[in-house]
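Side project, low priority. Logging it here so it doesn't get lost.
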Amino acid sequence: MNDTRFSSAIHTLILISESETAMTSEQIAESVGTNASYIRKLTGLLKRNGILDSGRGISGFRLNIHSEELSLKRVYEALYETEHVHLFDLHQNPNDGCIVGRHIKPVLTELFAKLEAEAGQALRAVTLADCIETMKTRIGRENK
């Protein structure tokens, strides 16, 4: 099963960042292609971690952090409530009677840890503003 929290959150943050008016969870859900309760769960995590704010009695959200300062790693950490990027899981019951089964866990654990650390570094280097700029470039090419 695929987890779409990260891509949905980035989509949400771009909408909020680029909108001239505060966007509601219903408006965001329509763009993301999901339901408003899912967006409220995402925005709740982002709000709890200081990325978003919403005022009492005011409908909609706003960024608490400038898009140039908001790394995708910070977004990931807010959604998954961990500092470590987790991309891969190990299968649980390899057969210790098999030479591969006996050695696969330590081999993959080391490999996965290295790849996940590299992914964390890469996410730290990309900001929400970078995503917005890439999107604007694509839109510009599309409109030519």
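Brief comment: The first helix runs from residue 5 to 18.
Revisit when time allows.
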